[in-house]
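Table S2 (text version). Query chain:
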Amino acid sequence: MKPDTATLDSRTAWVVAWAALAILTLCYGAPLISVVALKPMAADLDAPRSGPAAAGALTYLGAAFGGIVAGWLAGRLGIRRIVLFGAAMMAAGLVVSASGGLFLLYAGHGVLMGLFGTSCMFSPLITYVSRWFERRRGAAVALISSGQSVAGAVWPPLLQYGIDEVGWRWTMVLFAALVVVAVAGLTIGFLQAPPDATRASGTTGGSPRSTASLGLSPNLVMILLMVAVFCCCVPMAVPMQHIVAFCSDLGFASQYSAAMLSVLLGSAFLARQFWGWLADRIGGIQTLLWSSLAQATALVGFLLTRDQAALFTISAAFGFGLSGLLPAYVIAVREYYSIEEANWRIPTVLFAGLLGMAAGGWGAGLLYDYFGDYMSAFSVGMVFNILNLGVLFFLVLRQRGPRRFVLTPG
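Corresponding structure-token output:
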């Protein structure tokens, strides 16, 4: 691709977006190994379920802290260097995780895969791709945010096959080799410097796309978004990290249990395009409210049924609801802040979301170990979802209020 083809909303922009989606699909497959293999890992390591469940939580925790620095560095060193480094660290993390007990599992997931690996992927890539779009930003951000959903739809049955055939340790090693080779090829082949938004669109530089106001200071808006994303990601993580073990406890075959996760995240991928379309029309904050309401409604279903067919439907509905949340937070930040601020505000907001994912996944394991089932985890998740709805409803009311102010520094 030549530099003169780099324009906003162009065919080149969509090629970049699809390449970023492919990279995220590969990288989000890595932590899914510990999700699919949760029960055999616990048995092999002679640990309660909260033991291997903590590996996924540590990945999110490491990515939360590393994402802020990685986003800042990506704006200065370029996206290629950051993504290539992250891919190497993710592969190293898988190898280390497969080589020993719980300590090496935590070091591999938390430090290598999380702090130095995943942190270089989601926040930097989503900010990078948002710079390629103006009119279709919501659709593009929704597309690449689907990396985790596509990974969840594609990888669990394949990972389950690998775990059944060669064990979870060798599955991690083989997946590490795939990540290094495939991500390097996609990064070198397709990721180039984004177009200059001012020159491409003819607008004045440094201004947010929308001047609509919430009547609040920029930092307070960001804090409220961080509280909201934490509260929505806690319940989001419970089915995403424990649905395979949950279904296995209900007596479902291992392949059906893995397929349940695929249905959940596959539905999220398909629905995310709808939420991106909606965000381009009604804005990020209102999209967040509707998406959170859909997630909460589906979460009730996990509390009410144990039927296999019904749980497939509920999983699809839950995927539909959660799919609009993370991309809409990015859209909301881009609506209220310049691209210079977005380089660090987006990963800072997503930092709180990753903390919520870590707390939800690990906390669900702890609650299972204490109560012996997942009902308490789903119930606690519902409480956090209700808190999220309260924050978002407040922001929507401010948006619709009679006073309209432009955000000022402070």
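Notes on Table S2: The CA atoms of residues 214 and 397 lie 9 Å apart. The longest helix spans residues 147-190.
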